[in-house]
């Protein structure tokens, strides 16, 4: 769920690209009041990788509301990021990352799972 190395760097690049597109959509030339504040919060969540599904949904909502019609690149990046997850280089990976679940049977270690 939290790939590292090259796939993790690719997911980091995807998060950065989506944040930059959101910046371009939500107010690079002229801020639009509350929309620029929401966009800034979503961009921060995207760049840090925290609460990624919420950040992606907010990004898509703002893009659909504010952007001109050709949104296919932003929507495809958002869908890919939503389906792939944040990657190992994110706040979500630090908070909810890989965990080892061990099981004990009557005071002794459980046998290793068969592969």
What does this structure look like?
- With 115 residues, this protein is mainly α.
- The protein has one domain (5-109).
- The chain has helices at residues 5-26, 34-48, 52-66, 72-84, 91-96, and strands spanning 104-105, 108-109.
- It is elongated, with a radius of gyration of 18 Å.
Helix and strand succession?
HHHHHEE
The level of helicity is 55-70%
Query: Total helix count?
Result: 5
The main sheet comes to:
2 strands, antiparallel
- Biggest sheet strand order reads 1-2
| Alpha carbon gyration radius | 18 Å
Mean pLDDT: 79
Shape: elongated
Q: Please mark out the parts with pLDDT under 50 across 5 or more consecutive residues, or reply none.
A: none
Short recap of the structure:
This protein is mainly alpha-helical. The chain has helices spanning 5-26, 34-48, 52-66, 72-84, 91-96, and strands at residues 104-105, 108-109.
Helix and strand arrangement:
Blueprint: H1 5-26, H2 34-48, H3 52-66, H4 72-84, H5 91-96, E1 104-105, E2 108-109
Antiparallel strand pairs: 1-2
Helix pairs in contact: 1-2, 1-3, 1-4, 2-3, 3-4
């Amino acid at each position: 769920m939290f790939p590292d190395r090259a796939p993790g760097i690719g997911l980091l690049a995807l998060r950065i690209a989506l944040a930059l597109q959101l910046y371009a959509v939500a107010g690079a030339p002229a801020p639009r009041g509350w929309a620029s504040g929401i966009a800034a919060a979503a961009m921060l969540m995207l760049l840090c990788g925290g609460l990624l599904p919420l950040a992606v949904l907010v990004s898509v909502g703002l893009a659909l509301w504010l952007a001109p019609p050709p949104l296919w690149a932003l929507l495809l990046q958002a869908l890919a990021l939503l389906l792939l997850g944040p990657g190992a280089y994110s706040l979500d990976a630090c908070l909810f990352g890989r965990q080892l679940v061990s099981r004990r049977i009557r005071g002794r270690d459980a046998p290793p799972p068969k592969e």
